[in-house]
Amino acid sequence: RVIEPYLHPDDTPLDFELDLSGPGAGRHCEERTHYPWDQPIFGPDVYPSGQLTSFSGCKGWNAAPDDSFAPTQDCLAVSYRSDHFLELRHINAGFNCCPGEIAASVEISGNLISIVESEAEQGCRCDCLFDLDYRIQDLSPGVYRIHVAEPYARPEWGDAPLDFVFDLTAPVSDTLCAERTHHPWGLW
Fold it and tell me: In whole angstroms, what is the distance from residue 106 CA to residue 86 CA?
């Protein structure tokens, strides 16, 4: 069985048996009718995908002096380009000062982009702010709701979700923020 990263859900996987009891040769093929096999990029069978591409080091308990966002602002900056790439920056994301590794899953379903952020460990006895960069490719123009699930945001403490609607029908750059008043964003 061959696991292919670009296999469409309707495609038959490369899953076959070989007789290795004697010498011989052979081949097994499956028909593919979508990109990257047969369709131009951005065709009807191209699906958007996204991933966390990088993250900053700990910015301390307050945002860096050159940062244009207050440490109480938890922000999502978007830049959508005409080549169907969406770049996202989660500004002032709250994590443990020593997270080991920061990870995120990116799911795109219709016009909803869901990002779930996590850390490998709480390696220090402090929390601080980070900037996380994401890239989503093959995203068709449209109006999208982007929701980020954060490990330290607390709805029970009045934190508004990092959940915004962006009009990506044309190239755009925009930033929207939610206020946070507890550590690591604000004071206790």
Answer: 12
Q: DSSP states of 43-76 as a string?
A: STT---EEEEEEE-----SS--TT-SS-TTEEEE
Strand partners, 112: 109, 145
How far is the CA of 118 from the CAs of 62, 63, 154, 179, in angstroms? 21, 20, 14, 20
Among 93, 168, 82, CA closest to 134 = 93
Q: 87-105, pLDDT tens digit by residue?
A: 999 999 999 999 889 999 9
Distance CA 55, CA 94 (A): 12
pTM higher than the cut 0.90: no
Residue closest to 113 by CA, chosen among 138, 82, 94: 138
Q: How far apart are CA 135 and CA 86, in angstroms?
A: 6
Q: Count the residues in the chain.
A: 188
* Structure-block tokens of residue 75: 């922000």
Note the pLDDT tens digit of each residue in 38-58: 544 455 556 899 999 999 988
Residue carrying structure tokens 């081949």: 27
